[in-house]
Amino acid sequence: MSNVVDYASLNVGDQIPDLVKENISRTQLALFAGASGDHNPIHLDDEEAKSGGLPGVIVHGMLTMAFLGQVLTGWVPQNQLRGWNARFVSMAFPGDTITCKGVVAETLSENGENQVKLDISAENQKGDNILVGTAVVAIS
Amino acid sequence: MADADYIGKEYPSFTVNVEKGRIKMFADSIGEENPIYFDEEMAKNSGYSGIPVPPTFAFTLTMEAGQSFNILEDMGIPKTQAMHGEQGFTYHDHIYAGDTVTGVQRITDIYEKKGGALQFIEAVIELRNQTDVHVADLRSVIVVRHNVGEKS
Which of A90, B92, B95, B115 is the most buried (most CB within 10 A)? Predict the structure, then answer.
């Protein structure tokens, strides 16, 4: 469950707790394809992925983004998440370990509520960014 | 080819039902364990009026209605040449299990990089629930890799 985060005690540069997803499996990609509705064969079939110019199947960008969502909702309850966006900067592959991170970039007041803007990222085991973005959460 | 003439194109509105079982399946597939996505009582005790959808599930609702891929089909782009470039969510209210969500997808921009080798298609979708509450906005960028797998 999320902990209570106190706005007054937050500072720019504070890191929120990491979330690590180890050794992403092909089975997870298949399950996510079914659950998410993204059946693009580039996530399921090596031959199809290669025909599209890829080295093999790649992890769904939206699976990595779902992990990044979990790093946010692990920090504050989901009903405090106002908006977020992410750019898919490189590909993740089966077997990769993905670490999701968030850092306080700005504290602001919007529509009468205290908000925090976070820089968020998901990186692989080599430290390469897979996904980078920002998120805005409300903090009481 | 994705043609700039498609900028501003609006696709027919779609409607999807938000199913509790689908939320559970989705939450399981991403390794989510928070009981608010599985148990209505827990969700209500946590301040939600029902089982909420996880943050990225709104995208799945649009996929269920064939959005994003319908743009590729419309433009004659093979799925294997397309990748997700960016995704954004803005939340105005919650989407709950049992809701019926309606959306309209519109292409807002198309541009090229690397001399046309990469093409970017930006689309937005506004989502409303069964009581016409504006619940979320989605912004997607699809990247299309041209001339892949072709030998000269």
Answer: B95
